[in-house]
């Protein structure tokens, strides 16, 4: 079954460099599909925000900016520890790879924990779209569309992070087995690309979901020459 | 195989990127409470694009990858732009044609 030699080179590649190049290209092809996947959600966001700008400001102001900012910082920190883990792998220091990956995993779990607190709060305050949705005494309303997209976008993002957490465990196990060498650490490098991508999605989600209603005016109305 | 020299990014590059991302987050937060009229979202997006850019170039090592990988990475954003352009040229122009109201 296994046609991989002692250095981790699969038989269908000329050398490790070609193998790494192919993996990088493949990973980016996957990330392009991910960009388009989240792109659809962002597209829906722009369309509906343009249609109902006031409802969106109103709904956005229900989110906890402090928790959103904390989570942004936590996720940026996890991207740093991930980058450092890959750097240590390139130097063949497996112990530090395990350490930094464990830190990345920990920060990822903090992020998800904060998300749970936020979701619980929205649930308790009837901000879940559906028959019981209620905001400022009004049942229903276009604010529901914002919350539908809020849960869809942050939910898909959190789902990616849960997968990422599983991948971190995989990296930790491989690092503890001393699997990474300066010549071949493509595994942790590719998982790093995935983790950074998830960070980038959040970099856009934070201002678009948490901060849009903070200044009183709205771009969406202006964009169509609406109100 | 001996031709394989892994790229080791200097530590201070990573910390500079981290600092840029933290300052960018703080800046995003700060400008959100200023009133720039319709420019608020474009300003927030400009900061986010710079943040995403440094992540792609430095954390994701695209700066040191092959030209082919760079094209793949850029391709993702070109297609994303296409998706937005064709969606919004419909939705953002519907008001211009009163007959469809």
Helical content of chain B stands at 55-70%
Chain pair sharing the greatest interface? A-B, 67 and 58 residues
Look at the helices and sheets of chain A and give the structural class.
mainly alpha
Q: Which regions of chain B are unreliable across 5 or more consecutive residues at pLDDT < 50?
A: none
Side-by-side strand order of the widest sheet of chain A: 1-2
- Please state the second-level CATH architecture of chain A: Up-down Bundle
Distance between the termini of chain A: 66 Å
Q: The biggest beta sheet of chain B, please? A: none
Identify the quaternary structure here: heterodimer
Helix content of chain A: over 70%
Encode the helix/strand succession of chain A as letters.
HHHHEEHHH
Number of domains of chain A: 1
**Major β-sheet profile of chain A:** 2 strands, antiparallel
Low-confidence stretches of chain A: 217-227
Mind telling me the C-alpha Rg of chain A? 21 Å
Structural shape of chain B? flat
